[in-house]
Amino acid sequence: MCGIIGYLGGKDATPLIMEGLRRLEYRGYDSAGICVVDAKGRLQTVRAVGKLSNLDEKIRQTPLKGSVGLGHCLAGDTLIQLSDGRCARIDSLGEEASVLSLDPGTSRLIPLKAKVWSHPASTDLLEIQTPFGRLRCTPEHRMWSADEDGALTAKPAGGLKPGDLLAHARAWSFPGSPMAFRSVDAHRYFRLGAPAREKLRQAVDQHGAAATAVLSGVSPASIHHLWDESRNASEAVLRPLAFGLGLRFPLHDCEPVDSRHGSFVTLPERSSPELMRLLGYLLGDGHVGERCIRFKDADEDTLRSYLLIARRIFNLKARIAPIPEVRAFLLEMNSKALADWLRVNVVGRRRKFLEEVGGLPDEELSSFLRGLYDAEGAVALEAGQVIFGMVDVELVRQVQSWLLRFGIIASSTLSPASLKHRRPNAALALTIARKDSMEVFARRIGFTAGRKRTRLERVLAGKREGFYLSSRPLPLRKAPLLRRLREAGVPASFLKPFSGGKAFTDGRAREFLRALAGFPQAAAIINELRRHMDGDLLYQEILSVRRVPSGGGKVYDLEVPGTESFFANGMLSHNSRWATHGKPSEENAHPHTDCTGKLVVIHNGIIENYMPLKAELEAAGHLFKSETDTEVLVHLLEEKLKGLAAGKAGFAPDLREPMLFEAARQALQAVRGAYAVAALWSETPGMLVAAKTASPLVVGLGEGEAFLASDVPAFLDHTRKAVFLEDGEMAVLRREQISFFKLSGQKVEKKVHTITWDRAMAEKAGFRHFMLKEIHDQPQTVADTLSGRLFPLKPGALEQETGMSASALSQVSRVTLLACGTAYHAGLIGKYLIESLAGVPAEAETASEFRYRGPIIDPKGLAVAISQSGETADTLSAVKLAKQAGSKVLAVCNCVGSALTREADYNLYTHCGPEFGVASTKAFVGQLTALSVFALHLGLATGKLTEARARAYVDELVRLPGLIRTVLGLDAKVLELAKHFFKTRDFLYIGRHVNYPVALEGALKLKEISYIHAEGYAAGEMKHGPIALIDETMPVVALATESPLFEKMLSSIEEAKARGAIVIALCTEGETRLAGKADHVLTLPKVDPFFSPILNVIPLQLLAYHVANLLGCDVDQPRNLAKSVTVE
User: Fold this and answer.
1) Confidence check: pLDDT of 980 > 60
2) Are the C-beta atoms of residues 816 and 859 closer than 8 Å to each other?
3) 817-829: string of b/e by CB count within 10 Å (b at 16+)?
4) Mean pLDDT across the chain, nearest whole number?
5) Percent of all residues in the chain with a pLDDT value above 90, rounded to a whole number
């Protein structure tokens, strides 16, 4: 939609291009495509509609030779047995995996490499059920089934029927390796000696307490507590403080001591049998709270065992207490550090953790299973079975696979959700009924509770040996087998006692083989039977085959060369292949090719005059395949090349590169509109031509390679050297040389920028979505944006950074804030700040309308342009209009080197780091912080603010990072509100003064990502229309924090409540006047009203996030939106 990338170098281009597109997907995602030049100089193009994953899948599907394609046949939740012991969902494997396969020559299991393929699912799938489990696949997918003579045959699932035999593994063996765990910071305390305390005091005095707080993120109060010699210092204070002051941690003469919570907790770095046993018990029936871990069990001896394990592993004291009302006991361990460690390593990465469990050594895996069975296992005396069941169906399926590591065979039974039986969710149960499996279970896994161990011993004592019909080693039917034996010369009288029933049980099969030993004429058949008995497979009858809805999504297959087999949900599965010529590609997706198929163009922007150009080209004989404006570019380039070739006797090899450059230059001169464009010609495979006007384009300079992209993250893993193209400029990329030109053909020299930020800054850091991570980034965002800008607090302090002197500030007669979307809301708040704190008239304008209303621009005024990306097309156009009128421009922007910062006279960066969520959060708070800093310095320059008053405001600003952390603590309460209201279809947000724009922003956030209709209004406007919308189903979010207009805000809340509204109010701590007037109250810390928007917007961001997440919306990439709107 809004991102392009090109690569020229010696590496395989496809993975680099795909990686770059992934980095740019946040810009938009309606379609994607890729074109590469192959070894023979041909252009290879693949395109797909929708998100990048669709293109990724099409690239995997594209046949490598002729018309041979691949069938993709298994449901995405199918578990594949990997060769290292892990068991992973097929939809999580990526492009390649090492799987366990069956060697058909030896009937042994071997590891082999497999390729993974996928495509969209059909409406229905087949569900095959055996006692071992279920498998969903397409009717064409083939399974290894035993025929009448016991030979394995690949049969399509559509041809299978109840009674057919499918193979599953008898057992699998892996060496395994321990699991490594990530460390977390434990909350520790230190006793400060006199030298350490004095060194800290000197460093703090040198910077000042307020500045130190900003540098370190530690509150002034916490710093003040360090001087109290009777108190121990928390590591959470000392570590960031030392870092902010440039001191080494721990300080000399800084002695660790026991905290009031007891001894230091020990957090393991690697797995062990005891640790895995406890983690199994935790996942079975434990709970991890904010700082507490709890287990509940009816057996006190079980809890006592785990209490001792916790003491040995974690060095933690714990307690066991009875729960009389439920006849159970509670084990409780209090440790914030352990709770954090469990969230980071287990709970927060549950699926990945469980996948890695399968790769543990046998002793650790059996201990983990012991923990699970202690929590959720039982012994059924009458049925003579060991049972394990949970609503976590995927975990139970994993357990079934792990049991096979020890040769334990468990059947599975799925119980669907049933409100009648008080079962709101489906549950899966495993049953161990075979005596041999139960004996191994008792020896290798077992139970901790004495009660369960006794029951298991009783069941085993009454078990019969070898009577197992569900899983059997011989895939042969009795009748044809006995017939073959009679034909080999075995007397019918000998065979008669074995003739009952259709198949042999395990014990009867072994007895039969012992009896046959006396008939040498049957040696070949006996050897065949022994091979089955000693092999790695068992066989089960299919219970049912039925059609089920696919649920949409995708289906998958593995390609295992040689053996053509792998284990899917424990069953032996086959590859499926057929001949295909592929499906038609999506014609409107980029890249676009010319009539010859040798030219290709990618483009971001809008070609305004594409209709007349298209008519001219069609008249000249060009055939268009799509409806897009971009295709005009490639045909126009083709036409210009034809004209140049006609004048120079064809495409002579030494003229091709200059001809491509000249054709591109001429074509772009005929184009009107916005574009970032790149062209590739198969006749010049070592050259890319690119150009831009009003859309971003940056060139990356590597060692022997070159990149071009819409944004730096696309190539940041490969080079930090970048050149930003200006409007009307072109770039010619070759591996060893990159040249830059104006559209006139004049060569220009460009500055090479070194990118200082790291792509890792944009990673999710354990959060589920970028948006949630970026909401939690905001304390650091404010601290980074304030850093270095308030000390010294005097006129001209910003000059070194922005280039704007105190004299220039003092002469500003008017400020016009130009922005779009969320940035416009920041501008509205900036208007209040500038007029109130600096006494300068200010107006906030939507940039998209500014240049179309004939604005009267004061040449002595200052235009403040606000943009996260610095590439917003409407804001850039408004800036150019302001500059043409003689106005100076200050850019408030997050992206260094963006088009806006290059166009502006002065730059004030927000230092937010990359923001990847489409819905802006931390960029908005960064903009408010930067505007607050600007307003303070402008107020000092104009004389509106005294230094003392300005310092009072500074004291409030430096408190904000800590206050934001406090507000983020409301997350759980906001989540509960979201659960209550996420099905509501309309919301109303109201605020006054600086919080009126916050109401607009809250409403925008909700509708951006949840698609719920929401309106933001100035509360005083309620009576002028919006109040007509209010009824008893309407939530009204009221921003009622401390303000000179609080009484008026209270009156608006009462008006809404009188009409039946459900009021959700934000108020300041200590406020009591909302009692009885609001249905739900979120209490925020006290802060100066001018800076309250920075705190108040955070609960609104969290509410939008949780509502959208509960609705199943794509939070980071909402429909129809792009991160950077680079076209009008």
Assistant:
1) yes
2) no
3) bbbbbbbbbbbbb
4) 84
5) 39
Residue type, 637: L
Instruction: Give yes or no for a contact between 1114 and 1017, defined as CB atoms under 8 angstroms apart.
Output: no
CB-CB contact of 995 with 1092 (8 Å): yes
Beta-carbon contacts of 792 under 8 Å, excluding residues fewer than 6 positions away, are: none
Strand partners, 802: none
**The pLDDT of residue 878 is above 90:** yes
Distance CA 990, CA 1004 (A): 13
Angle made by CA atoms 519, 523, 524, in degrees to the nearest 5: 145
Across 818-841, average pLDDT = 95
Supply the pTM of this predicted model.
Answer: 0.46
The residues carrying an active-site annotation are 2, 1123
Which phi and psi angles does 142 have, rounded to 5°?
Answer: -105, 140
Q: How confident is the model at residue 2, as a pLDDT?
A: 56
Q: How far is the C-alpha of 53 from the C-alpha of 948, rounded, in Å?
A: 57
Q: Which of 983, 1089, 1075, 999 is nearest to 1036 (CA)?
A: 999
Please answer whether residues 139 and 321 qualify as being in contact, where contact means their C-beta atoms are separated by less than 8 angstroms.
Answer: no
Q: How confident is the model at residue 30 (pLDDT cuts 50, 70, 90)?
A: low
Residue 300, Cβ neighbours under 10 Å: how many?
A: 14
Per residue in 853-875, pLDDT tens?
888 888 889 999 999 988 888 99
What is the 8-class DSSP label of residue 601?
Answer: E
Return the pLDDT at 1009: 93
Helices H / strands E in the chain, number of each: 35, 50
**Among the listed residues 792, 815, 713, 779, the one whose alpha carbon sits nearest the alpha carbon of residue 961:** 779
pLDDT at 68 exceeding the cut of 50 = no
How far is residue 734's CA from residue 269's CA, in Å, rounded to a whole number? 48
**CA proximity to 783, closest of 243, 233, 235:** 243
Residue 692 has pLDDT above 60, yes or no: yes
Q: What CA–CA distance (Å, rounded) separates 724 from 729?
A: 10
Whole-number Cα distances in Å, 702 to 10, 460, 695, 730, 789: 11, 69, 23, 19, 35
Lowest mean pLDDT among 66-75, 374-383, 675-684: 66-75
Least Cα distance to 80 among 172, 152, 154 occurs for 172
CB 805 within 8 A of CB 940: no
Distance CA 242, CA 240 (A): 5
Q: Are 1090 and 836 in contact (CB under 8 A)?
A: yes
The DSSP string of 738-807 is EEEEETTS-EE--PPEEP-S-GGGGS-TT-SSHHHHHHHTHHHHHHHHHTTTSSS-STTTTHHHH---HH
| Amino acid type, 662 | E
Report CA dihedral (1115, 1116, 1120, 1122) to the nearest 10 degrees. Answer: 150
Whole-number Å distance between alpha carbons of 843 and 824? 11
Does residue 576 contact residue 541 with C-beta atoms inside 8 Å?
Answer: no
Confidence of residue 131 (pLDDT cuts 50, 70, 90): confident
Q: What is the model's pLDDT at position 473?
A: 58
What is the predicted pLDDT for the residue at 443?
94
- Strands, E assignment, 232-309: 233-234, 254-257, 286-288, 292-297
* The two three-digit tokens of residue 1055, written as one number: 């008006």
Least confident of 353-362, 739-748, 890-899, 979-988: 890-899
